[in-house]
Amino acid sequence: MPAGPDTSVKITEPYARMVARDAYFWAWPLVNIYNRRLAFRQAPRVGLMNGVLPFAPLNALSMLHDYIEPKQRWVACPNQDVVYGAAIAALDETPVVVQVPDFGERFWVYQVVDLRTDGFAELGSMYGTQPGFYVLARADWQGETPRGITKVFRAPTGTAFVVPRVFQDDTAEDRQAVQDLIGGIDVYPLAEFDGTMKRHDWRQLPRLGSPMSDSGEGETRWVFPETFFDQVPQVLKDTPPLPGEEARYAQVLAAIAAAEKDPTLKQAMSDEAEKADTDLIGPLLQFRNWGQQLPHHWSSISNSAAFGTDYFTRTAVAKSNILVNAPNETKYYYQDLDASGARLNGARRYAVTFARDQTPPVDGFWSLTLYDDHHFFVPNEIKRYSLGTKNKSLQSNPDGSLTIYVQADPPPEARRGNWLPAPKGADFSLYMRAYWPKAAILDGSWTPPPVQRAA
């Protein structure tokens, strides 16, 4: 049988549109990550983009030294539970070394994903990872592994995204204590490995400009319908097909080849990409439109960072909260609605009450974060964007239960420590994270309590 379509055959515009619409949906996350790689390539040196976001040349790492600033717009659904880092490795150019210092008893995890946002390396507290040096390499790398390397993880794609996350509680003392630990985090080309742990003071990074347009309230735009099919061939070259995807790849590449010879077809495919961006991708920003449906209108997923051929879930996550950890690393719960099914809105007050001993069962920690309708932090007078294990202000009720008050106006003084500020008169979402979840979360026997409307 031939490997794919006969490219000498004339195709119709409706067929080209059909292929374009389908391909735009399943390749959207791949192009998204690829364009982030192109942006990192423009970093002049290791620093902080706009002074708030880790930004580094390819095959290098930048690290925050505190929680991420609320005003960043590069990645939707950030959190203020951990200190973040970021590196994009061009494994088609070189393997890279990933340094793991000794974090002691502190929770940590390095997210390591390929161009599909599927994980391919296990590095974190939940894996019992030992301090040392680890290598990320493309699957076909045939080089020699130097002495002193603990393990080599092989990626199916030429692009890898590395995102360290290190827990920090909400105190000045812990902000200081974490500095020595994160100073040993690093990523660099294998040729620079000398067996010694490189150290950094991440508080001393320069401020860098952004190569992207970051205006607007939503996430920085990473996928552009008008250039999408110009990029797809290179993106697919970096991303070998999964078993069974060969025909899918051949179909879209044949349609693109035909469009290169016919301006009418090329315009039709671009038009269809624009429609798909609005009709198919746009609604996936809203959590209520996808996910496994749980009690009280919460939703979740169980295949994060292991999407495989689940194109719908991968694209939904990429649109709404890209770069999520594997379920055994972090379990995510999404909420747009109150217990009655009405949209969460700051014109009303809400209460989320965990029964005694029923906060999320974790070996790490948990948090509840509030986002605006674009999935970013909501400015508020007390600069509080989440509540959970990190907060020393939380007070339990007399019966041992714990109530978090979600509202725009301050509650009575006695409840202020449990207040999660909401936007005045505007829609918002709640997002629960359970880091290093226990079995009750992973098997579904524990789910979050309802978001009750309060008086």
Describe this entry's structure for a reader.
This protein has three domains: 13-33 and 221-285; 43-208, Immunoglobulin-like, CATH 2.60.40; 289-454, Domain of unknown function DUF1214, C-terminal domain (Jelly Rolls). Strand 1 and strand 2 form a beta hairpin. The mean pLDDT is 97. It has helices at 13-41, 172-182, 225-238, 246-261, 263-281, 311-321, 439-442, and strands at 47-49, 53-55, 61-63, 82-90, 96-100, 108-114, 123-124, 132-138, 149-155, 159-167, 186-189, 207-208, 292-293, 299-300, 330-335, 349-354, 362-372, 386-388, 402-407, 419-421, 428-437, 451-454. Helix 1 packs across helix 4 (246-261) and helix 4 (246-261) crosses helix 5 (263-281). The strands form six sheets. It has a five-stranded antiparallel β-sheet with strand order 3-4-10-6-7, with helices on one face. The protein has a four-stranded mixed β-sheet with strand order 9-8-5-11, with no helix packed on it. The chain is α+β, with helices and mostly antiparallel strands and 455 residues long.
Q: Look at the helices and sheets and give the structural class.
A: alpha+beta
Q: Report the major sheet.
A: 5 strands, antiparallel
Tell how many strands the DSSP assignment holds.
Answer: 22
CATH architecture of the largest domain: Sandwich
- By CATH's scheme, which homologous superfamily of the largest domain applies? Domain of unknown function DUF1254
How many domains? The number is 3
| First-to-last CA distance | 68 Å
Task: Identify low-pLDDT runs.
Answer: none
Determine the mean pLDDT.
97
Helix content: 10-25%
Anisotropy-based shape: globular
Report the top-level CATH class of the largest domain: Mainly Beta
- Cα gyration radius (Å): 23 Å
> Looking across the biggest beta sheet, what order are the strands in?
3-4-10-6-7
Under CATH, the topology of the largest domain can be stated as Immunoglobulin-like
Secondary-structure element order, as H and E? HEEEEEEEEEEHEEHHHEEHEEEEEEEHE
Beta-strand share of residues: 25-35%
